[in-house]
Write a structure and sequence with these properties.
heterodimer, A: about 200 residues, mainly alpha, B: about 200 residues, Rna Polymerase Sigma Factor, Chain: A, Arc Repressor Mutant, subunit A, 2 domains, two-stranded antiparallel sheet, 8 helices, globular
Chain lengths: ~200, ~200
């Protein structure tokens, strides 16, 4: 296991960032173990590089034959569809065209505006309004008065009935009272007569 | 660093407009590397040549889909990767693509009829590579022989960078054990082509 601050193999393959590389370099100068590890990596690489590159047995090449070459129109067409930016522009253009066609073939419904009022004079309007107002107020007042009269009639009738009943009840009580008093007086008269009779008798 | 009068990006732009000669020039810059990548993956020269032709044909047909010409190398190798694995699937529908046998040494690199490298050493390396899984082998090839960065390899094989690293480092441990008895003197072979996929 390497004691290097960063992966020694990354350092060997020059895959470290600059500051990491410097730190590892300083460490390697003072660490015999890491130097040995680097030597081993060099040895493996040198061994692999014993296998040399070979020449290609047959050169590869294409012939420029106008028969097989795409036409200028076809190249332009292919170039157009091969470009993302152009495709995006084409899409935006088609969308715009579709919106225009749609807006032409499907016009927006007109907003329904109220019909203009016939030209009448303000005075006539005010007179008309005033007359209607008066009529309405008069009708409301009449209805209210009628309701009030009806209510009053009802209340008076109820009061009369209550008064009659109370008077009748009071008269009955007075009659009863007079009757009682009359009986009491008779009793007193009889008692007085008896007493006089007894006085006379004595 | 190799300076070119015409950059790959210029050739790609011309090829997109139908300039076949520009595309042929682009092929000449990349065919050797693509062929060797495929040859080491499929371990068969004929297949590697056929696949290379297919790769460049497909690349030409899809050149307009390449959004960033600066990313041509990983894009091209991604096509090569797909072609190679498509061949694996055709040959072995079960998906077992790892049991490859080393080719005969008749086709070993020679100069003037003499082997450039000792046969035993190159054979040992070939055999050691074939003991790796297909994924490990491809990662070693893309890193050691083709000099791609981890991010580029991840793009080519369509795997996370962490997976790519894991495959490579596991493969190197295995290779260390396999190659220990035949370890070559340091500096043998070509210098590693690190530097962002510059074609030879």
């Amino acid at each position: 296991m390497s004691c290097s601050p960063f992966d020694l193999r990354d350092y060997y393959f020059k895959e470290l960032a600059e500051n990491e590389r410097r730190l590892t370099e300083v460490h390697v100068k003072t660490c015999a173990g890491c130097r040995e590890e680097l030597d081993r990596l060099r040895g493996v690489e040198a061994g692999l590089l014993l296998l040399p590159d070979e020449e290609i047995p047959q050169r590869i090449g294409f012939i420029s034959d106008p028969v097989f070459e795409p036409s200028a129109l076809r190249r332009a067409w292919a170039a157009f569809w091969g470009s993302a930016a152009r495709l995006g522009f084409a899409s935006a253009a088609m969308l715009s065209a579709a919106l225009i066609v749609f807006s032409v073939t499907h016009p927006a419904p007109l907003a329904k505006t109220p019909a203009p009022a016939p030209a009448v004079s303000t005075a006539a309007l005010e007179a008309n309004f005033s007359a209607r107002m008066h009529q309405a107020v008069a009708a409301a007042v009449a209805a209210s008065e009628a309701r009030q009269a009806q209510e009053t009639q009802k209340l008076l009738a109820a009061a009369d009935r209550r008064h009659t009943v109370e008077t009748q009840a009071m008269m009955e009580r007075v009659a009863e009272y007079l009757e009682v008093e009359k009986k009491h007086l008779n009793t007193l008269i009889l008692a007085s007569n008896d007493a006089a009779t007894r006085e006379d008798a004595r | 660093m190799i300076l070119r009068a015409v950059e790959d990006a210029d050739l790609i732009r011309k090829a997109r407009r139908g300039d076949v000669e520009a595309y042929n020039l682009l092929i000449s810059r990349w065919e050797r590397r693509v062929y060797n990548y495929l040859q080491r993956i499929v371990n068969n020269r004929e297949d590697a040549l056929d696949l290379s032709q297919d790769v460049f044909l497909k690349a030409y047909q899809n050149l307009r889909k390449l959004e960033d010409p600066a990313r041509f190398a990983p894009w091209l190798y991604r096509i090569a990767h797909n072609e190679a694995y498509s061949l694996f699937r055709k040959r072995r529908p079960e998906g077992e693509a790892e049991e490859l046998q080393p080719e005969t040494m008749e086709g070993s690199p020679t100069v003037g009829g003499n082997a450039v490298f000792p046969v035993e050493l190159t054979l040992a390396v070939s055999v050691a590579l074939l003991k790796l899984t297909a994924d490990q082998r491809e990662t070693v090839i893309l890193k050691i022989y083709q000099g791609f960065k981890f991010e580029e390899i991840a793009e080519i094989v369509s795997a996370p960078v962490s997976t790519v690293k894991s495959r490579l480092y596991t493969a190197l441990e295995l290779l260390k054990a396999e190659l220990a008895p035949v370890q070559a003197p340091r500096g043998a072979g070509a210098a590693p082509p690190y530097g962002g996929g510059t074609p030879l």
